[in-house]
Design brief:
InterPro entries: TPR-like_helical_dom_sf (IPR011990). By secondary structure, the chain is mostly helical. It contains six helices and no strands. The longest helix is centred in the first third of the chain and has 18 residues. About 13% of the residues have low confidence.
């Protein structure tokens, strides 16, 4: 929830780099606090919620593409049945290929 609030402030407050940093830190803390990891299974990722979706989105918006790709890959590893991270990973790679 805290990460989402900082993302909202990022967009509402003139895209402050500080809000982006705080959002990413809050998402990272949420992952650590929930014990989300390879042993947590798909429920830990899907219910661990937004950090696996929003953190890569925010990194992509900040043009930190490598971090976004790594986050999406990690989400796909942790929840093999969840199609969304693989789809977004492919879309981002396609975008970067067109950009280059």
């Amino acid at each position: 929830v805290l990460g989402n609030a900082h993302v909202s402030l990022f967009f509402a407050g003139g895209q402050s780099p500080g809000s982006a940093r705080r959002a990413l830190a809050a998402y990272a803390q949420a992952v650590r606090g929930r014990g989300v990891g390879p042993g947590a299974g798909p429920g830990g990722v899907a219910q661990g919620g937004g950090q696996w979706e929003r953190s890569p989105q925010l990194l992509q918006y900040l043009e930190r593409f490598q971090g976004a790709l790594e986050g999406l890959s990690r989400a796909a590893e942790l929840a093999p049945g969840w199609e969304e991270p693989r789809k977004r990973h492919g879309n981002l790679l396609e975008f970067l290929n067109r950009l280059c």
